[in-house]
Amino acid sequence: MKPSLTLYLAAPRGFCAGVDRAIKIVEMAIEKWGAPVYVRHEIVHNKYVVDSLRDQGAVFVEELDECPDDRPVIFSAHGVPKSVPAEASRREMIYVDATCPLVSKVHKEAERHSNEGLQMVMIGHAGHPEVLGTMGQLPDGEVLLVETVEDVAKITPRDPDRLAFITQTTLSVDDTAAIVTALQDRFPKIVGPAKEDICYATTNRQASVKAMADQIDALLVIGAPNSSNSRRLVEVGKASGCAYSQLVQRAADIDWRALEGVQTVGVTAGASAPEVLIDEVIDAFRQRYDLTVDQIETAREDIEFKVPRVLREAS
Questions:
Q1: Residue 23 falls within a domain, yes or no?
Q2: Which of 35, 103, 193, 279 is the most buried (most CB within 10 A)?
């Protein structure tokens, strides 16, 4: 007989509106212009998604100079520095910007504050494409990056009374709150965003993990190792009391030995992980356990972002 196990599914989980829009942009571009269509950086951080789009005719590159002038290029959901579309325009390339609208909102915030004479402090992870894209909206030196509370003490702004802060959209809500407090303590006049920059999907997925953490023996987060929001879900699980919180790309990555003896497992997915991978994990558990599946819903999402007009127009 199979051992009994209850699987708790977090809701919401998986694709957010920005990821869904970015994938549609690539698919519609291939349909409109034919293959190949070039994509600067992974359109979203998920191998399954990237491989699927590659099979349809997308070619993924890291820099614009790897793209020919005569083929369309798409900029990833994470956003790009201003210099990238400027260079694409100079080369007279067809390009489509798939930057998530919530990331674009942060870009506009940074520009607005800069135009008002404020130097920016960005809370984010060094080297992440979103951070590179956001910092690249302003001239060198106009954005100071902090990753931790400790970093706040190390920055040297040109005028401590003329600062504003922005954040990466996929950070830990709790960790970011601590950094914001440190910034406000050191720079009392620092200006914050009208509405927090961490996106609704990141916030919702972290809240659902917190809600299930005290009911589960283990947590599996379906997502890619380079997915910031997925890695934050693992951290939130551990911080909320679920010591065994692991990131898996798909069912084949599950360490079944580590789960021996557990009776309850929570499953969630980062914002760039498709539902097909969640179904795959559920099926893998069903093969090994007498499975009960329950859902813990903490929010409902009905946000949808339109694709750019150039793709909605007839060819």
A1: yes
A2: 103
